[in-house]
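Exercise 3.2. Students should predict the tertiary structure of the chain below and write it as C-alpha cells, then compare their answer with the key that follows.

Predict this chain's 3D structure.
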Amino acid sequence: MPYPLEKLPYGLRRRLRELATRSEAYALQVAAPNYTGFQPVQKIQLVPVAEFSIAESKLQKHLYPDYWPQNYHKITVQPTSENSHEAPLYIVSRDLQIRDFNPNFKLSLILDDFRFEPKEELNFYDCHLDTAFIESLLHAVYSPIDHISFYASVITEDAAKMVFNAPGLKKITINEPSFPPAIWWIEALAEEKCTDLKEFTVYDAQVSIFEIDKGILHKFIKAQRDDFELVIIMEEQLRWHSVIEPLKKLFNEEFKISNIENDSLKKKVTIGFEENSHEDWYYILRVD
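Answer key:
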C-alpha cells in the first residue's frame, strides 16, 4: 500500500535515507527533490558502457567511462560498504553488456549500485536466460533500447517474446547457432505482430535458414516499417553458389535483385558472406 512521503516524519525520512541503497536513494531524491531528510544527495557517475560477467561463480563489473571502443579504458568496480554515501550510483547511458549469466544469478546484486539507461545497445554473450531474469532486467531499464543482441546465448521462448515488447526496440541481432533458432524468431515476431523493427540480423547463418515458410517470411517483412532490412550473414565457409536455389524459391516472386546497398527507403533483404563482401546480394521488395 503506497504511503505519501509528505506524511513521513523527518526522523523516519532520515532513517529511510540511511537504509536506502544508492539506487533507492537516487529514486527518492528524483521523486521528492525538495524534501528535507533525504540528504546527503546521492552522487552519480555517468558511464557510456558497462559490462557484467560471471567468472568462477563471481560477479565482475567493468566500466568504460570513455566512448568505447575508441579511446577507452576499463575500470573494475570494487565492492563498497553498504552505507557508504561517498560511492556514486553508476548510470549506464549507452551500452549494456552481459556475459555468462544464468537463471541462478540474482539481478538485485547489480541494481543496488547501478541504474540502467542504455539508449543504444543491450548485448548478451554466452548467457542462459529465462523469463524471470528478462522480466526483472527490462523492468530495471529506464530508457528505450534501440538494439538487443544475443551471441551464443540460450533464451526460453517465453523470455524471447518478452524482448519483443522492450520499449523503443528497433533492431534485433542473433548469432547462430542459437536457441531458439533464427527461423523461430522470425515466425514468432510475425505471430506476435511486431511491426516497428528497423533491422533483424542473423550472423553465422546455415543454409537451413532458408527453409522458413515463404508466406510467413514475406508477411513478416511487409509488416515492418518502410526502411526495414533483414540481414543474413552466412557462416564463414559458405559461398553464394550454395544458396542460389533456396534464395530463388524464397524471393524471386515478390522481390527483385539489386546491387544497390544504400536504398534506405525500401524494405530489403541482404544476404552477406563474411569473407567476401563483394558477393553480397540485395533483394528489394517489389512495389509494383
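Discussion points: The radius of gyration is 23 Å. Residues 1-42 form one domain.
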